[in-house]
């Protein structure tokens, strides 16, 4: 019993030091604990809830942006979407019809391949690449989909014939610009923009 009381006192002292100390070491330990909790508890729990291994994705490029608003964007993109038989009126009913901005955090929900439809914003991993891509579905076939970044002029080769096993899920919610925290560190320490 005395050992339990002693251990509880030690834990109490540790938490008091962690939260009330102004030392650099306590700050670093707090940061490490926050990382461990998010990385190994919170993120996997979200993955279970949303049925995907990537429940949160940061938009890392401007490929889904609509600069100047919908009408300006549509004037530059109409012919590309027309190649897929997609009209401006059809786009009005799409999720995130005004695009996504670099730095947005997207909440991703796992979805069966058969439920995917043109207009969904999907996260997938291209073959031979570890980095996930978030683009819009422009074509659905029985055994593959095709995507296009809203702001891109045409498709990139890895957006054609995306297989079901490459798909991580679809975007269901957006947390505007909160991903800039991650992007700042990635760009600052890797030099990648």
Supply the CATH superfamily name of the largest domain: Umud Fragment, subunit A
Helix content: 25-40%
Average pLDDT value?
91
Strand arrangement within the widest β-sheet reads: 1-2-6-3-4-5
Radius of gyration: 22 Å
Count the strands?
A: 6
In terms of quaternary structure, the protein is single chain
Strand content: 15-25%
Q: Which structural class should the secondary elements be placed in?
A: alpha+beta
Give the tally of structural domains.
2
- What letter string, H or E per element, gives the SSE order? HHEHHEEEEEH
What characterizes the major β-sheet?
6 strands, antiparallel
Shape: elongated
Distance between the termini: 57 Å
CATH class category label of the largest domain: Mainly Beta
Residue windows where pLDDT falls under 50 for at least 5 positions: none
CATH topology value of the largest domain: Umud Fragment, subunit A
Describe the structure in your own words.
The chain is of the alpha+beta class and 193 residues long. It has 2 domains: 48 residues, no CATH class; 140 residues, Umud Fragment, subunit A (Ribbon). It is 39% helix and 17% strand. The chain is built from 5 helices and 6 strands. It has a 6-stranded antiparallel β-sheet. β4 and β5 form a beta hairpin. The relative contact order is 0.15.
């Amino acid at each position: 019993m005395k050992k339990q009381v002693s251990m509880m006192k030690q834990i109490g002292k540790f938490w008091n030091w962690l939260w009330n100390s102004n030392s650099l070491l306590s700050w670093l330990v707090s940061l490490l604990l926050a990382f461990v909790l998010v990385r190994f508890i919170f993120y996997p729990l979200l993955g279970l809830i949303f049925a995907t291994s990537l429940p949160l994705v940061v938009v890392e490029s401007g490929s889904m942006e609509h600069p100047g608003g919908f009408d300006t964007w549509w004037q530059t993109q109409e012919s590309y979407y027309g190649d897929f038989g997609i009209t401006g009126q059809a786009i009005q009913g799409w999720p995130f019809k005004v695009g996504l901005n670099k730095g947005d955090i997207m909440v991703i929900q796992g979805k069966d391949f058969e439920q995917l439809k043109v207009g969904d914003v999907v996260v997938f991993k291209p073959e031979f690449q570890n980095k996930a891509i978030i683009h819009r579905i422009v074509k659905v076939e029985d055994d593959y989909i095709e995507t296009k970044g809203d702001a891109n002029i045409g498709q990139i080769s890895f957006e054609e014939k995306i297989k079901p096993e490459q798909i991580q899920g679809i975007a269901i919610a957006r947390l505007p610009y909160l991903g800039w925290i991650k992007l700042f560190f990635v760009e600052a320490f890797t030099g990648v923009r």
